[in-house]
What does this fold into?
Amino acid sequence: MHIGWFRPDAAASVPRRYRSTQQAKLFLEGIQDGVIDLGGGAYRRVLEVSARNLALASVAEQEQIITRFRAFLNSLSFPLQILVRIEPLNVESYLTLLDERVHATTEAGLRELALAQRAFVRELAATRILLGRRFFVVIPSALPARDHRGAVWSWLGLGQRSSPPLPTGAIVSRQLAQRTTDVIRGLAVIGLHARALDTDAVLALYYAVLCPTQSRLQPLRQSVVAATTPAVRRAREAACADRGGP
It folds into this structure.
């Protein structure tokens, strides 16, 4: 079933000699300072948002949260995409946190409780796959590109689209910065913490989407990302020179 992750007839916005096989299939020009360049003047910014369990709130609190969230959505002058990913939990990081708390506490009761929790989680992880949810909001620089196949992933450049020219450069940076601030403030009102992903985090997200198994076995290393940056920059500069502009 085709869901629009790849665009088989992607336009050659970068000359063929500068495009890898992945660039020919993945509709993505580049990522700089956390801003995703989809080509054709379309840009995106991705926020990761904390969760809030409505089931733990009272009926009155639930109604208040829903009312505030509705008001937040109605206040926006631009569309959003809400992306939810279900991923295997990194149990080791949680166990490391518990170990740190065990060593930090001096109270015997809390220490015993932390040790019991660590043993329980380790036993649980050994018998089943533990899953967690991550929540993202994708902010466009203007109206979203139209995906003729209705693919959800077109917002992140993983689907077919037809885009009108959009403002670029400093105008896009200011627009995305303002929209990002508006969304973070609006979500804070309902008790949700949001943070804008930097370039490394966006790369990790793409990696997890496209290679879910490999991304868990071989996570991206900072040294690898840093080593590829100069080569990517040279290729883009050469492509821009051929096009006669930025």
